[in-house]
Amino acid sequence: MKNLYIYAALASSVVTSHAxxxxxxxxxxxxxxxxxxxxxxxxxxxxxxVDREAEHGLRAIHIAILRGDLECLxxxxxxxxxxxxxxxxxxxxxxxxxxxxNREAVKMLLRARAKKTLEDTQGYTPFARAxxxxxxxxxxxxxx
Length: 144
Fold this sequence. Notes:
By secondary structure, the protein is mainly α. Helices cover 57% and strands 0% of the residues. Helix 5 runs parallel beside helix 7.
């Protein structure tokens, strides 16, 4: 745990001094690695990282869904991750879950007040993305 505090202190100084640069923070890296305890530790120590943008506008919540990691997704929601933040293509976590066909992630995001109406850069809602990915049963959860 001592190393976590040292790394967090170093990372927070980098994060604050390069706010315009987008790169993975220690929290993003922990989510990518599927390390629940480390993700929780960074979220507690540096809550501002929970919604921080990384490359391509990805947030930690997007990465958790890309990995299919419901445990990290739930943790990020518990730490008040904004479920409606959009990446560079204006896709939300709900778009990602719809494309992946991840029914449980969709349910978790809807309970956390994810908006079904947000469109990506191509004008698609999560419902439309679920349909285009062939997830017809899942799309029923996403009807407007």
